[in-house]
Amino acid sequence: MRSIICVLLYLFSSAVQAETVRLYNWADYLAPSVIEAFEQETGHRVEQTFFDDEEVRDQMLYSGKLSYFDLVMIDNVGAQQMVQEGLLQPLTLPPSLQQHLAPARIKACGNHTIPYAWGTVGVAYRAQQGKPKTWREFFDPSSPHIQRVMHLSPDETLGVALLALGAPAYSDDPEAIDQAAGLIRSQPAQTGFALTLAEEQGAQFDAHWALVFSSDLGPLRESTGQQDWQYTIPDEGSLIWIDCLAAPAGHPIRPATQAFIEFINRPTIAAQNAELMAFATSNLAALQHATQRYIENTTLFTPPELLERSHDFEAISDEMLEYRNQWIFNLTQTMATAQ
């Protein structure tokens, strides 16, 4: 009888201690097998809610609605701004795991968030159509038959258009931004996130060139069934994005949340997750457990000569962000009408 009571007490105690980790994340950014392994090891659950628009995510953070979530995936520039505004609370790893993270990624994410992944902005292209050698060619292709897709954003889209003109990606010169906006609208293009459109349209996705993030290539092939999609960075270089795991302010970091971030930062788990989800990990020790094929993937790990011509995402002043956003609004209206 005593043994039965002890078992019941143990089961009751385990059930009480089990928690749900609520994560606000991009889709296809956390391997299901990693979630399953964490749940089996700890008894906790992981519940994901997905977003496909950074602006929507940021609006929810500023409104306080994301206090429901334990963790949110956010870019490094947004993370640092939100830390200053008190919207995020410190999220840390024990030194034994922290030491595995790339110092440059730690610096980029700041001391309140944890580096997760990084990559570049480039062009996905159908192999039979060839690739654009320059950003100018992407925005103004010589062939009228090239079907292009691009999302309209004040940083990456205007940024690479500025690179095409030989200007800094984060120029605060209104005249340069005007010229970049003019280049973007110089030829008809379908607007929207290429991966979102590919997931909606499947095999009917008929673009030839698409503005994408380096981690989009695998999901793009999978969503469309079109295996000839390739990835390139034009000659002018690229923009380097960094994603960080953050904890919204509003409630304490629970044991399950801490257990989760420590679990996914174990080198073996980080390697498994990054390979399955096809992104470049920020965990240097994970590379010791990754396959040679992953390590040599130049879509994920940009060759040094191109990285030298690439630029980290930077914060934009409120004044220039408003100016860029006005252009994005105008482009959205005019290019949508032209479709």
Automatic annotation (TrEMBL):
Places the protein is found: Periplasm
Keywords: Periplasm, Signal, Transport
Cleaved signal peptide residues: 1-18
Pfam families per the UniProt record, alphabetical: SBP_bac_8
Chief place where the protein resides: periplasm
Coiled-coil features, chain-numbered ranges: none
Name this protein carries in UniProt: Spermidine/putrescine ABC transporter substrate-binding protein
